[in-house]
Amino acid sequence: MRTGSLPALPSRLAVASALTACCACLAPNLARAEGSLGAGAELASTQALRVTTDIFVDVINPAVETIVWTGKGNVTVTDPLGATVGTFASGATITPSMSGSYKLDLLENQFDVDGNGGLVNGTQVAWDVTLFVSGVPRDGRVYSFAWGFNTGGFNMASATNASFYARVPGGDTESFAVMELRTDGLAGFIFEVQGNSTGVRGPNAGRSVPEVGNSAANEYQMYLNPPDDATYSFLGPQVRDFSFRGGTEITGGVPACDEFVGGATTGEFVFTSNVVGSFHLVCDLNRDGRFDIVDTGDFLFLGAAVAGTNRVPFDGRDNNGNPFPVGDHQCSVRLTVGEFHYVGRDIETSFRGLRMFQVGANGSLTPLNMFWNDALVQANATTMPAPYAFISASTSGPLGLNSGDPLDPPVPLGETVTPPGANARAWGDFVAMGGSGTGKGNEAYLDTYTWLSEDVSAPITIRSVDGSIDSDMDGLTDYTERCITGTLTNNADSDGDTVNDFVETRGGMPNVNTDMDLLVDALDADDDGDCVPTADEDPDDDGDPTNDDSDGDTRPDYRDADDDGDGIGPCDEDANMNGDPLDDDADMDGVPDYLERDSDGDCALRATVPTILCEDNLDRCPLVAEDANAFMDDDGCPEPDADADGVPDAIDNCPAIPNTDQADLDDDDDGDVCDEDVDGDGLRNVCEIPITDTCPAACADVCADLPSCSGCAATDPRDADSDDGGLGDGAEVARGGDPLNDEDDQLPGLLSGGGVYTCGAGHAGSPFAPLLALLALGAALVVRRGARS
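^ thats the sequence. predicted structure below, dont judge the formating
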């Protein structure tokens, strides 16, 4: 039966502070246990508890609180941290040591069973759990996530009229509101009472479904009285930024896509929430202008909402698994706080029906609108008993059914009959056929739900499209181009670079961007960002850049930032800096530098040096050929050549005067063109080539240290022994001989006066000058000694 227990205080702290005075607030007839034992009990004695039920007890002030279990068999008690406190017999006192929820694990069913494990009628044992505060019983502390009962039958005598109180989240971690689930004639033989925020698991959340293949979570704490441990408050929900994005089946699609191919592609709904709650995502598939959560003609996705961004995946199918029809569809999202689903499992009858109320901190009850959709099980509905002998309603209607004044009796809503004052969700007829139940609740989950507060978004439009259309015949469907690649649907070559969109997107992949700039390849006229437009990366001029691979690295030139593989990109091989590498050809061979590994062509000149050392990436002067210089080093740059004779200064035997032939008759490392004594005979060239019959002025100037010239005869400046007499021209002149007379070459000693070419002696710096002086001195001494004798 329902009772008017003391209204719960707004917070746990307030409860704790008021416990010592709380017994004075309780009316004498309410100072009792919680369960099915005794007068005024919450549950009828027929509601025998099954051993599968875990009972929890809230302990707020362990210093003054104790727990007593009364019933059939023992219970094992676990503290809030999961540690075992012990096993206690009926009537034993359990003394808590900490605040929190203590778990009582039943070791026996609260009824006797027969050989088949079934309940033996009349053996139900009444039970209760009492929390004492300073020795006084306190209601609102006992709950379970799933109350499991065995009533022994489907008939009216086995039914319950109890109320259960769900502690529901109020939008954040601090707020908890309370809802009353008030039953009248709830009969299911073996059934459970539980609650959650979304209904059955999976795509049919929010709908009633057959039991086979479905399940429901036991999420909420279901109390037998309004709980002490609640704030009885909640936050106002706010939904913002509701949007849809298609093309999520591939990572990286077009962010602004609002399309999908029903049943073939995926999308994502996004919205932000200020609270923890539930959401109803509804699309008006039947185009009646209403976003109807209980109409199977509309699409409904019901789920849990988090505070912040919520992302809801979408496969383009309706709740029956069929693809959305092609066309535009309006969708909206409702954000709720305190949503409570009672998902009755295998409950054959609810007559005269159940209702839901918000419980206030002061004990007030506010009727709530209830929603349900039984379309998937309605075919099994039976006629309810008199005085409401009609088929129960398959849905609550889009606005829900209000539970009405809590003081009014329940009045069922019919499928085709709407009695005055209808306010209850009812079904069934208390009848069992062949040992099993009947009606739409038999072997089914019937979901009835409500919420405390809501906020609804403005509608948005999503578009279901035909996934086979390819308007520009480029191999990419229009959907793919709009939602995945971002290319044009009416142009097979969106960027006009002669490469088909299908190729540039690699068959429809998103974000194919070779050069990683702001444009994907299919919208980029220079895919590899190498300063050469894609359309121009066609060296074989067949109009197809996809088959040109200049460096043979298997990557076509239009996707290769280094077409010739020389380690230097085309942008850097633009010698004239005009932004066009196509017109730069250092070796003038007709092939642009960016397509040649050796732009200046000097590799052809390197016969002894490995070719790789002259390629652009190692050549310090890749655009200036290192030519005809014997490649003294491996830097690829031409060596200094002051006289521009093609011979680098470092090896030029005459660096200031051009002498390509590098002739050096006397092998003295001075080239002939700059050697004062070409034949190395000790006579300067100018002294060996008189231009008159007498010693030329040039000879006199150069040979000022020699006797005057008289009767000079020219010697050969390129022949060290002009008379071929065996004594070099310079040596003959030094001893006074005749360099043009081979007869005096073999004469011993110094000669004097007989020489006919005395002016041709070596220059002041000649190596013969010291010798000549010594010989002259020696000859003078010999003549003087002979005179004395």
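Confidence is low (pLDDT under 50) at residues 1-31, 706-713, 753-789.
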